[in-house]
Amino acid sequence: GAGVSQSPSNKVTEKGKDVELRCDPISGHTALYWYRQRLGQGLEFLIYFQGNSAPDKSGLPSDRFSAERTGESVSTLTIQRTQQEDSAVYLCASSFPPLAGEQYFGPGTRLTVT
Amino acid sequence: KQEVTQIPAALSVPEGENLVLNCSFTDSAIYNLQWFRQDPGKGLTSLLLIQSSQREQTSGRLNASLDKSSGRSTLYIAASQPGDSATYLCAVSGGSYIPTFGRGTSLIVHP
Q: Counting one residue from A and one from B, how many pairs have CB atoms under 8 Å apart?
């Protein structure tokens, strides 16, 4: 079956523009995570979705960041008014069951803000 | 708050060596521990998942062990190959739905 997919694979944008990143989880995976990985750094948790429950947004770094997920399907991460420090690889992962399940990662979106 | 430490941060070995990567965590109340590899510029690939009730898992040349009481896991790679060169990360899932990741061990296996 298909794994986690993300689009676009690369995105170059000018400072101040908005960007939207997409994640398609594995079918049937109720849990979905977004992470950020800056160059040479570890993974930074951003947001967690579980089914129709309220998302855990505790990792979002500022109100310029938001994410949505419709049911157990596609998720989009939106960054408004991008800044150079937003440049990173944005990774999405899905799992089932939510607590003890194996996490599967997508290939990531490399965002460069110029 | 769970903290995960991976030692060493970097490792360079000749091809054919058996090697051990270490992952330690501070809170032993975990559901599972997962090992990943990450190639440069790529996403994470799951290698092994150990549930809290298990002591070890094996996949090919890889063997991961878990000792919850001491807060440790090891990833053993037998007969290392240049294709094993990557960064290896461990992630611990505990009371929170959010896994805690280590910073990784960067492995280079040279021919």
A: 51
